[in-house]
Give the backbone structure.
Amino acid sequence: MALADRGTAAAFRALHAPGRLLILPNAWDAGSARIIEDAGAAAIATTSSGLAWAHGYPDGNALPASALRAAVAEIARAVRVPLSVDFEGGYADEPDRVAENVAAVLDGGAVGINIEDGSGAVDLLCAKIEAVKKAAARGGVDLFVNARTDVYLRAQARPERAVEVTIERAERYRAAGCDGVFVPRLTDPAETRAIAEAVAPLPLNLMVVVGLAPAAELQKWGVRRLSAGSALASLAFGLTRRLAREFLASGRSDALHGEAVEYAAMNALLQR
């Protein structure tokens, strides 16, 4: 995939159609994205934390916009399926700067983003959503904006009001122009059904956490998008740490010949 185009954007939007469940094992660089695509993914989504770690930065809007732009272009060059980028809070507080940042991401080949409220004001995310939609329209891209609200992730409401507050925020973000609603750390069946019904026809996105129900159950509850978040990146870094410690401690290389992508196979995957 080169620059974002109408056909790719339409294909990504179609993956969120009612009755479908889009499963996204999030990538953190071009190599992991290509591996995930080869495994059968219909689209690639990035993990902000994994991508930041791979570039030597902590998660949390610390990654320079220039590094994000370069990473998006690298991933888009390596894959053929649609690409959605975890855009954190837009890497700026001012909506105009967020619009500039998203224009660069779209130039790199993305057709979707996640953008989050975090600990910020609802009004601010609404303004950012409006700004990125306008920037995408100017660039001729039908950008899929997945609005993430951290009501559950950051415990921003009392448990008995979490559903109500989440729906209130989702309605505000829908009015601002978002195309999907992302509620990480939502796991309760009844609460999931209530939120999915309230945000419809927009798709509800959940994130893998310990104790989350199987995908088939989530789909019955109305979930239409399931993200791995940082899970794959965390596992990859964890495995690297364990193997490196063992190798440093003993010099033994037995464990370094386990379940690995062979050199030739990885080279072949990246031949374009």
The mean pLDDT is 95. The domain at 6-208+218-269 is CATH 3.20.20.60 (TIM Barrel). Residues 231-250 form the longest helix (20 residues). The CA atoms of residues 94 and 263 lie 45 Å apart.
